[in-house]
Known about the structure:
Elements: H1 4-14, H2 17-31, E1 34-35, E2 40-41, E3 46-48, E4 53-55, E5 60-61, E6 66-68, E7 73-75, E8 80-81, E9 86-88, E10 90-91, E11 108-109, E12 112-114, E13 119-120, E14 125-126, E15 131-132, E16 137-138, E17 143-144, E18 152-155, E19 160-164, H3 169-172
Parallel strand pairs: 1-4, 2-5, 3-6, 4-7, 5-8, 6-9, 7-12, 8-13, 9-14, 12-15, 13-16, 14-17, 16-18
Antiparallel strand pairs: 10-11, 18-19
Amino acid sequence: MLTPLHALLSLLLRLPRAARRRLSDFRWSRTLKEFGPGAQIGPSSIIYNADQVSLGANAVIGDFVHIWGGGGVSIGEDTMIGATTVITSQSHDARATRKGLLYRETHSKAPVVIGRNVFLGSNVTVLPGIRVGDNAIIGAGAVLTKDVPDNAIVMGVPARIVGSILDDPAEKA
Length: 173
């Protein structure tokens, strides 16, 4: 015997992809602080504190992305975020034990701002307080511990600038 939840899920899975997308868009437009026209969020992505997360027009969030928005997250227009990326604007106080507290008893928050036309590859981690400039490219698996300037290409753990989209490839040949 199907429970009501299983019956609903079964019904949703039978809907055409376009209808499922419209339902998803409707949900996010009601829960996010801002959900720009043409924005897309992968069905398996999770956004905590969605009321503090803004997603610009035509921005795309891939599958299995986790966003912790407690400190505020702003994602600019035309930005692409690869699968399994983690963006967090909240953490715990690293000095908790000095204060006689457990980490779980503390919270720190700092806004994350990701500019326009940014490309984050798969499995990128963006830590609280980070600002990523417009047109930046972040390589797969990078961990952003510092701000990224406009037009930068960064990769690695921790992420380091390895180039600029303004560099002339012919000069390196």
